[in-house]
Amino acid sequence: MKNPKQHLILSTMSAHVLAALTLMSGGVQAQTAAPTIEDVPVSNTALDSEAIKSRVVITGSNAANRAPVQSSLKATQPQSIITATFIEQAVTPLADFNAVARIAPSVGSGLSSNGPGLGESKVTLRGFQDGEYNITYDGIPFGDTNNPTHHSTSYFPARIIGGMVIERGPGNASNLGQATFGGSINLFSKELATEFRFSPYATYGSWNTRILGAEIDSGQLERFGDARMMFNASRLTSDGYQTYSGVKEDNYQFKLQKPLGKDTMLTVFSTYNKIHSYVPDKAGVTLAQVALYGKNYSLNNDKTSQNYYGYNYNDKRTDFEYIRLQSNLDGGWAIDNTLYTYAYDNNTFSGQDASGATANGTKSGAAGNKNVPGYNKLNSYRVNGDIFKLTRQLQAGLLRAGVWLENSDTERHTFDLDWTLNVPNPREASAPKDVSYNQNSSWKQYQPFVEFEWAVAPQWTVTPGLKYVNFKRSLDAVVNQGTRIPTKADQTYNTTLPFLTANYAVNKEWSAYGQVARGFLVPDLSMFYVNNPNLSTPKPQTSTNYQLGAVHQSGNLTFDADLYYIDFNNKIASTGSGNDLVYYNQGGVVYKGIEGAATYYVGSGFSLHANGSVNKAEAKDTGLQIAKVPKSTAALGLLYKDHGLYGSLIAKTNGSQYAKDGEPAAYQIGTYTVTDFTAGYRWRVGGVVKMLKVQVGVNNVFNKQDATAISASSKGAAFDQYSFVPERSWTVSLNADF
């Protein structure tokens, strides 16, 4: 198991690096100030020299200041920019990053069955599932190492996010990640304050939910070379909406920026997150359980039950650190290098089957016993990487080139248990009888890229690019998952990805863009869970994206719309039976649709927002909509902001979808709408207390508790597990600045 304190090494090292650099640089003047909260970068891989051109400054008009989502006039693909102001004023402080993203067009779900931010959630992006798109933080892609999926309650709660840019497409060659296939959800850290500030905050809400925390900003420290620092610490506790599903989360975040001369900036960042929660490993509730206990049933206090809360819990620890050095060099050159590491450690204990399909009884007990079966599951990994980027400003345009290097090391196991006797349970006939799997895996990858932003004319840019991907995945299993035999295997996947984007400024208020680009998705580790993994040599799944769009920004109106067509190729299929499967490439899916968003400032502080999408994802062989793809999304909101008073009423609708391929009527999930309300007041007090803010929020105002997902059981429809919108909940929050 990884050392859960390893993250402290980099944090300590960062502190010593800062001290040394501070002494060396003395009274060096700061470079141009970092962007404000509203100054959100358009691309997750933007260099400073590039960002000067591509930042969107949300200060130019009433509509732009108030829009929940909008696009940049310099966009080269469909995007949704979500500012820190919207996150702070219209999203519950309990939220995870998926709850922030769900406001955007073509983003589906983002709801946790245990209440906002109190359990893991998933979002779809144009129907692409988690693991088929990237999530980045300050330009660094992160995700699991068996496939690039994510855990929304880990790493970055919404209260430490300083902005979000959702890119619905592969982007340019400089966009990084293992799943450019479906686009990117890009998170950004908060900007550092220029003045000293101590900001305690508290939230109380439904289900005995509490957040207590504080942020300290150093402001600009002239005696230390204009360095700026921030530290944030918070604790969340809650009983949860679902039965016996309490959660406790601690989060710590540190960020430092230090100018090194007038042309160089050093950034050091570290965050640590710890969660203890009571939840079955495979969450959901059967319709029979709903009839007996209600839609909020999850766990119980019966020690003879596999759903006893004492048998179903997890401990998660995550850390994420980076050191970034940016420098403008002579001759129009600039470099940007980010050295990073992140880790995830999830130690889960669970009953054998939350659906009730598996009866009590273990092989470790006497014959005919009714002992409670269960298991312990570990997923523990560390990822290390470096992103180097180089730019050169030329008369004809901007040249960008770079390389992304990364490696991972993962330990995973599942050990079977007898909870009644608290001993191993030998479920399997062959040795080791109580081990379902025990494996180590790793990857090594590199992705060099180059692109040129050609300034064809003052109002027109065209950016061709090329990226090469080399990804080697290795497995070393004492007991392999699925086969339960020792297995060593490795595969190397590579592909070349071309990109072409363009942006044309029609005038100061209108622009148009187009994109033709290829995305890719690395094959899943599960392809090694067969008797002979080396018989399978599939290529990475790829997509070819064709997109056209337009953006408008004026004093009272922001508007953007786009059309997309995505040809998904190299879909991985299998032949054979049992553990003798062989994986290969076959068929694909066509994704197509239309998206749009608009905000209109009515006046007197009021604005209206609407966005929506119509989305199709049809299998090439059947022409049917594939599973888990909402046919549409829509959002409608009324927002107010004036003289310290603000509020929002926003309804988000997810269109109907199917839980299984083939469009079976029994697995159709109907359209559902969730409406959220927030209102707050901020006033300047003066004296010791500089500012006070009070905010109230109501999630699911109309208390609609529709089904959001169905997990089909191999043991029959009676054991299918359903997820539902949690009931109406409320929060009250208080913030202060000293």
Overview of the molecule:
This protein has 738 residues and is mainly beta. The protein is 7% helix and 51% strand. The protein is built from six helices and 38 strands. The strands form seven sheets. It has a 22-stranded antiparallel barrel. It is globular and about 80 Å long. The two termini are 42 Å apart. Mean pLDDT is 89; it is low at 1-57. One of its GO terms (cellular component) is cell outer membrane.
Which tags fit this structure?
mainly beta, 22-stranded antiparallel barrel, 5-stranded mixed beta sheet
Low-pLDDT stretches: 1-57
Structural class: mainly beta
From the N-terminal CA to the C-terminal CA, the straight-line distance is 42 Å
Task: Give the percentage of residues in beta strands.
Answer: over 45%
Query: What is Rg?
Result: 26 Å
**Share of helix among residues?**
under 10%
Tally of alpha and pi helices: 6
Shape: globular
Keywords: Cell outer membrane, Membrane, Receptor, Signal, TonB box, Transmembrane, Transmembrane beta strand, Transport
Membrane topology: Multi-pass membrane protein
Subcellular location: Cell outer membrane
Family: Belongs to the TonB-dependent receptor family.
List the helices and strands and how they pair.
Layout: H1 7-25, E1 39-40, H2 48-54, E2 56-57, H3 62-66, E3 79-83, H4 84-90, H5 97-101, E4 107-109, E5 123-125, E6 134-137, E7 140-141, E8 161-167, E9 184-189, E10 197-205, E11 209-217, E12 228-238, E13 247-259, E14 264-277, H6 287-293, E15 313-328, E16 333-351, E17 373-394, E18 397-418, E19 423-424, E20 435-457, E21 460-479, E22 487-505, E23 510-521, E24 541-553, E25 557-569, E26 572-575, E27 582-585, E28 589-603, E29 606-619, E30 632-642, E31 645-654, E32 657-658, E33 668-669, E34 672-686, E35 689-699, E36 707-711, E37 721-724, E38 729-737
Parallel strand pairs: 6-9
Antiparallel strand pairs: 1-2, 3-8, 4-5, 6-7, 8-9, 10-11, 10-38, 11-12, 12-13, 13-14, 14-15, 15-16, 16-17, 17-18, 18-19, 18-20, 20-21, 21-22, 22-23, 23-24, 24-25, 25-28, 26-27, 28-29, 29-30, 30-31, 31-34, 32-33, 34-35, 35-38, 36-37
Membrane topology: Multi-pass membrane protein
Domain TonB-dependent receptor plug: 74-183
Signal peptide: 1-30
